[in-house]
Amino acid sequence: MYCRTIQFCLMLLACLFVAGEAVAHPHVWVTMKSDLVYAPDGSITGVRHAWTFDEMFSTFATQGLETKKKGVFTREELKPLAEVNVTSLKEFDFFTFGKANGNKLQFTDPVDYYLEFTNSELTLYFMLPLKKPVKAQTFEFEVYDPSYFVDFALAEKDPVALVHAPAACKMSVMRPGQSAPVGETFFAQPDSSNYGAQFANKITVKCP
């Protein structure tokens, strides 16, 4: 039963994350919250995500999992599935793209990852550390699937938080469909291989 579940998840993820082929509409929906994490010296250390998957995806992903109580999954029971998720997402840069002071950022493998199952929905938590912490007057990052197979939407309430950021730092959040500031050139216009960029969630933080 355990092997069967992992095979199901691998098959599903292979379908979800096919690169280079834009689709007309999404097939998986994710509601997300993100924390931008700072070190005591004011440098940015990484982004902490919480992604809640839609009920249909969550039902499919948990199909066949052995549990002590039907319909209830502990963090330990979901641990293999969490590992499958973060391993599969690595190839796609975790759908997280950022720049600091105009320079592209590199992230390392996620840490502190786990899954929770609440109200028939799976939520994946993980910390995505920067390869090298950086102090930045301007930090920008987007979350989106270039193929638009997965639709990422910011939570309605408190979607993004600054954790231990310098008090003078100011954050702005732009959801898909909102107008970009005049002259904004950080993210390229989407092409056929990057169709989902037009549905990106964009977060900008400016510090003195």
Q: How does this structure look, described?
A:
The structure is a single chain. The protein is an alpha+beta fold. It has one domain (2-17, 26-206). It is built from three helices and eleven strands, in the order H-E-E-H-H-E-E-E-E-E-E-E-E-E. It has helices spanning 2-16, 55-62, 79-89; strands at residues 28-38, 44-53, 96-100, 103-104, 111-118, 121-134, 138-143, 150-154, 160-163, 170-174, 201-206. Strands 1, 2, 5, 6, 8 and 9 form a six-stranded mixed β-sheet that branches. Helix 1 (2-16) packs parallel to helix 3 (79-89). The model is unreliable at 1-11, 14-23 and 181-190 (pLDDT under 50).
Encode the helix/strand succession as letters: HEEHHEEEEEEEEE
- Percent range of helical residues: 10-25%
Tally of helical segments:
3
Shape: globular
Distance, first to last CA: 55 Å
Summed over residues and divided by their number, the pLDDT gives a mean of: 83
Poorly predicted ranges: 1-11, 14-23, 181-190
Number of domains: 1
Structural Rg? 17 Å
Topology:
Blueprint: H1 2-16, E1 28-38, E2 44-53, H2 55-62, H3 79-89, E3 96-100, E4 103-104, E5 111-118, E6 121-134, E7 138-143, E8 150-154, E9 160-163, E10 170-174, E11 201-206
Parallel strand pairs: 1-8, 1-9
Antiparallel strand pairs: 1-2, 2-6, 3-4, 3-7, 5-6, 7-11, 10-11
